[in-house]
Amino acid sequence: MNQDKKNTKKVSRRSFLVRGGLGTAGVLALGTYLFRNPIRRVVAGAINTADAPFSGNTDTPIVWFEVTTDNYIVLHSPKVEMGQGTFTGLAQMAADELEVSMTQMRVVHANSASGNVDGFATGGSTSISSLWMPLRELAATMREMISSEAAKKLNVNTSDLSITDGVITGGGKSMTYAEAVMGVKDWKVPDTPKLKSLSDYKFIGKPIARVDLNDKVFGAPIFGMDATLPDMLYGAVARPSLIGAKYIDANTSKAENMPGVVKIIKEKDFVGVVANSYIEAHNAKDAIEVEWETDKNWSTADIRAMVEVGKGKAYVIQKEGHPDESLEDPTETIISEYWSPIGAHAQLEPNGALASVEGERVTVMISTQVVGLTRDEIAKRLDLDKNEVNVVPTFLGGGFGRRLHTPNAVQAAVLSKAVGKPVKCFFTRKEEFQNDTFRPPTHHVLKAKLKIDGTIEALEHNVSSGDVAFGSPIVPRIAEPVLGADLGAWRGGMIQYGAIANYQAISWRVKLPFATSWWRSLGLLANTFAIESFMDELAVKTNRNPAEFRLAHIQDDGRGKRLKSVIEAVVEKSGYSDEVINGKAMGFAVSTDTNTPCAQVVEVSIHEAEIKVHKVTCAMDPGLVVNPDQVRAQCEGAIIMGISAVLYEKMEVVDGALTPTIYGPYQMALMKHAPKEIDVVLLQGAEVPGAVGEPPLGPIGAAIANAVFRLTGKRLREMPLNLDKNIVS
Amino acid sequence: MTLALTVNSTSHTIEIADENTPLLWVIRDMLELKGTKFGCGKAACGACTVHVDGEAVRSCSYAVKFAEGKQITTIEGLGDEKNPHPVQQAWIEEVVPQCGYCQPGFMMATAALLEKVSSPTDDDIDKNIINVCRCATYYRMRKAIHRAAALMSSLPLPESQNT
């Protein structure tokens, strides 16, 4: 599988810990890549499969854990908590091997100075899966290290010790972990102990309450925007409204006389203000007359025209049999087109950072998914050594991919350096909406040829999309020329029906004039909407039950078995039927994201052209589940976020600017739009954890559109689904 | 100018240049109560919801001058770990928060609703709880709102999420 170079070359006497980075969830990886080149597979593997290795420090347990004098264990997490429940899952994994209770576990974000920095990012639904082996091995090793210190202090053999809740007992005496580690200066790292068997775990697999629950219920100041430092001032940076706007110069004379202004800072690439309060900083910034250079007055129509399949560069990303020959005759080929719009992240906490530059020492507190990258960018701009920059991650007020690049930290640091005091600098909501790294719009062309028996002879998916992975600084520069196709854009875009003899997926790459990048689940949402709506069209055409139609095209290997299992489970649990009953119809769809298959059935009604989702049944197989309650929570949230994107969300380009710029006009699912019933069935088709946070966003769009078809006979082929405007078939 | 404010039953005297400054920034940056969140600055998302004389108010768009002489309650004053408000208790029992950023606003809006409608229907909840949650925790929030209503009126409790 994807032997990451960084990991394999680090072999040392402590390679036992390094080995842990590589999972074994390979059975479900979508096969038949055309990427045979090993570099391609490494890059694709790191980002597109759930067994992406952890690329941080896995050979120094003492960097990960601290023992407090009152016998709590502090886990310094290299993964950030943005709501996905990772802190809780990691605490469960560590507690079980450390032999401590959950109430003794504390989880904090590792700051970059601690040395425990993730070399990649928090994202891609990999936090639990990539740390499954290394974290348990680190915890077990730490336990052995502590107990060998206790053995010395108690003067007994380690084999005569027993441990309960962080208290070591032996030879009629006992001591806490805290007492055992006190005074130890030189730690010896032993060979990795054997991990416990799954049945011996007390916390892994249990619905443990979130470790951050109280902080989040009682309003603790845990987010980036809550950070404070003594003598802190407030910053604001002028950000453009127009697409492609380049900063040229600024007239700051009016702004200089605004109340509360401390300093105006003009740099080669931006202009900012430091003032005494948030409001004063932003008022002064608004008074700056900025000269922006733009090349074109873009419109929604311009963007839509760019994204049409056939306009960009084509890359075949998957091919089996002879799809081109099979689909040659247009009279025998069924063709449908689908569209998805520009999507905003719209996370509730705006981007921003609190930076403090004191001489050559920089501290930045920030909600970010890329701690290491943010540190590196600040060091580069201020011409400092990386070690002089400490990035302190906070809890994120939503991530969803929006914080996989946080260059605004650099601006905050520049402002702080200019005034010699800590500066907190945040986006307004309008700036957030207009300077997002958007989910790119997509266009899909699906083609199929049916056999006489009603099964599929050939299937082809074309997806044209703006960039997702390319252009992102976390993707190695080498990826672009080597891969060609954007691995984020084609996520979920490959054909999962391996029993079809001839099929292919083609990715068309378009460079759009505004930033497009990671949005929770990447291409999965739109790609599955297109492919699974088309599969439903074919099922209807051949008079087949949509679930049975899918099952008939799934191959009999390990991946196929797991895919079939979620389909069968969702059909059974939902009681799927093609009939319209009491004005409600059901819709079915299924997707495979990285290694996690997920099938959903929705129940939908329509009242005055408004599509209402009443119930969603979701069967998902993410492999081994560390915390079933939080996996369910991810399913529930992803389903409603998916409903939001599929039914309501859409950015437009008007007079060169992205719009709307505020919640409300940027319509999103609210309480009244959320289904009142969500039924989640979890299957376990693998021995290790797989992806959870993104896969349940896959099927929801097509499932709703397929239900609407059963209710109205209308096939909606464009997101957001709209009964008035869509093409009627 | 000088303004007298009562926040979470504590009296504060603040010096502020502009009495039209939104109450949100006074609460967050002058009184250092960070539980009330900035989301949009236009009263469109509800992350900044506090109580002013028991009414849910979006503090990002409420001039501080209007708060003078009134009772202001923030999430920190709603309840604490030792003595949680029933809404907070219900939020814990249903394990509602994900990222958590918008949750104080939702809990404040819910607490204000339950003061007026002690046993809200789903329709009451849909019409009154109109804040934005990007993690889309609405499914558990609805359960938690019903649970909070039951906790406050000693009605039978719905079955817990986290069992």
Automatic annotation (TrEMBL), chain A:
The chain crosses the membrane at residues 16-35. PROSITE patterns: TAT. InterPro entries: Ald_Oxase/Xan_DH_a/b (IPR000674), AldOxase/xan_DH_MoCoBD1 (IPR008274), AldOxase/xan_DH_MoCoBD2 (IPR046867), AldOxase/xan_DH_Mopterin-bd_sf (IPR037165), N-heterocyclic_Hydroxylase (IPR052516), OxRdtase_Mopterin-bd_su_IorB (IPR012368), TAT_signal (IPR006311). SMART domains: Ald_Xan_dh_C (SM01008). Keywords: Membrane, Transmembrane, Transmembrane helix. It holds the Pfam family MoCoBD_2. Residues 218-296 form the Aldehyde oxidase/xanthine dehydrogenase a/b hammerhead domain. One of its GO terms (molecular function) is oxidoreductase activity. This is Xanthine dehydrogenase family protein molybdopterin-binding subunit.
UniProtKB/TrEMBL annotation, chain B:
Coiled coil: none annotated. Pfam families: Fer2, Fer2_2. CDD domains: fer2 (cd00207). Keywords: 2Fe-2S, Iron, Iron-sulfur, Metal-binding, Oxidoreductase. It comes from the Bacteria. This is (2Fe-2S)-binding protein. Residues 1-78 form the 2Fe-2S ferredoxin-type domain. The keyword Plastid does not apply. GO terms for molecular function: 2 iron, 2 sulfur cluster binding; metal ion binding; oxidoreductase activity. It comes from Pricia antarctica. SUPFAM superfamilies: 2Fe-2S ferredoxin-like, CO dehydrogenase ISP C-domain like.
